[in-house]
Amino acid sequence: MRLWQDHLSHPSSIILYLSPEYTPDEPVAFLFAYPRRHATSLRGGQKESLHIWIAGVLPKRRKEGCLARLINELDSNAFLTTCTNPTQFPDMWRWLTRRGWVVDQELGGGKVMLSKRASE
Predict the structure, then answer these.
(1) In sequence order, which residues have a C-beta less than 8 Å from that of residue 10 and are 6 or more positions away?
(2) Pick from 97, 56, 95, 50: which is nearest to 76 by CA?
(3) Helix then strand then coil, % of the chain, to nearest 5
(4) What is the helix (H) or strand (E) element at residue 92, kind and residue range?
């Protein structure tokens, strides 16, 4: 709970969601990002990123570009990071790597941090 409070309380945290016009109160996709300072430099020497912490799309709405639309709403100058486990989430891994995300750090236990410039 404390982690959520820390991330949500940052003034630059972002929560985006996507919902159809015909059911605006029923989101089909969401994204939560916050500014993150990294202990070690990322590729290109960056020490800070806009970190996509949690994102999701309803299974029946996947392959419609929902997540891509949300990411496109982020600051085009931002250096983005996100974490995933390729073995546990192979669909997310494929989605990210096909869109230019690259492994920046191995985090252990199969988890990796990927990064990309938002405008790439």
Answers:
(1) 34, 35
(2) 50
(3) 25, 35, 40
(4) helix 90-98
Distances (CA, A) of 91 to 38, 54, 96, 98: 26, 15, 9, 11
Q: Are the CB atoms for 35 and 12 separated by under 8 Å?
A: yes
Show the domain range for 11.
Answer: 2-117
* Strands 102-108 vs 79-84: parallel, antiparallel or unpaired: unpaired
Sign of CA dihedral 120, 43, 32, 74: negative
pLDDT tens string for the chain (120 positions)?
A: 676 677 677 778 888 999 988 777 889 999 999 999 988 888 878 899 999 999 999 999 988 999 999 999 988 888 999 999 999 999 999 999 999 999 998 898 999 999 998 877
* Burial grade of 24 (CB within 10 A; 0-12, 13-18, 19 or more): exposed
Smallest CA-to-CA distance from 81 within 32, 40, 36, 39 is with 36
Query: In CATH, what number is assigned to the domain containing residue 70?
Result: 3.40.630.30
